Amino acid sequence: MVDWLYHLPVVWMAVVVFAATLLISGVIYVAVLALATRERARAFKAMSPVMLTPLAVIFGLIVAFLAAQVWTDGERANAAVIREANALRTVVVLAAYYPQEHEARIRAFVRRHIEKAVNEEWPAMAKRRANLPLISAGYTEGLQLALSIVPQNEAQMIAQREMVSSLQSAFEARRQRIIISESTINWVKWTVVGLLAVLLLLTIGIVHSDNRGSAAIGMSIFSAAVAACIVLIASHNRPFTGEISVGPALLMQVLPKEKP
Q1: Mean pLDDT confidence for 256-260
Q2: 106 neighbors 95 (Cβ within 8 angstroms)
Q3: DSSP alpha helices (H): ranges in 182-211?
């Protein structure tokens, strides 16, 4: 499916998909009725409506599988952002156990991490172009910052250990959201969905070729159903792209303010 379609608001996506689906249905309708003459008309009339059942079942199963895939990806993306936000919030809370200088450095690091995620990574993930190096410079910087602090008491020692664990959790969650941002329904699956939809429209047209009104009504209803399924799947296909996507709002809530 064309990339620009995923970036449209859902309403405009629906307009484009419904228009394209009805146009294809209209072309098939005209072609079938044009071919339904003489010998071909008798052959079309002999076509059993039972043919629609297996095709419809296969189409429904594939749509269900694709819907399950995109919803699972969306849930995983949302969970990754929640884990990252919770881990960074823990780092900010634990920073209060250290002297003001160390706390300021930790808060500044978390602030830079979130600002980079919002301003650079989210737009890149929306275009499926986010970079995922083997070892993140931010991860290395965070660990070095946490481990460079010499604990002065048992509370700071525990805070340091928990901070390192939280940083590891935050960067693992970041890695997961970038990986999930690459997830999409590939062209093979979309092709199969489109082919089955065309076959069903063709079969409906052939079965009702002796009655133009019935053919038009049946093909229109099925076209609308196909378009609705495509909009449903496409609007959720990329977890970080489009109007219905996972945003950085949770990370922004964790963003520490600069202390005067």
Answers
A1: 67
A2: yes
A3: 187-207
The CB density around residue 50, as the number of other CB atoms within 10 Å, is: 8
Q: What ranges do the domains of the chain cover?
A: 3-254
Task: Quick: pLDDT tens for 5-56.
Answer: 999 999 999 999 999 999 999 999 999 988 888 788 888 888 788 888 899 9
Predicted pLDDT at 230: 95
Which residues lie closer than 8 Å to 205 by C-beta, 6 or more apart?
28, 29, 32, 33, 215, 219
> Which residue type sits at 122?
W
Scored b (16 or more CB within 10 A) or e, 64-99 reads eebeebbeebbebbbebbebbbebbbbbbebbebbe
Residues 92 and 251 sit within 8 Å (Cβ to Cβ):
no
d(CA 240, CA 115): 17
Q: What's the whole-model pTM score?
A: 0.85
- 196: tokens are 């089955």
Instruction: Round to the nearest angstrom and report the end-to-end CA distance of the chain.
Output: 51
Higher pLDDT, 245 or 145: 245
Q: Kindly give the residue spans of alpha helices, DSSP state H, lying in the chain.
A: 3-6, 10-35, 38-45, 52-95, 100-116, 122-126, 137-147, 154-181, 187-207, 212-237, 249-254
Quick one: pLDDT band at residue 226, thresholds 50, 70, 90? very high
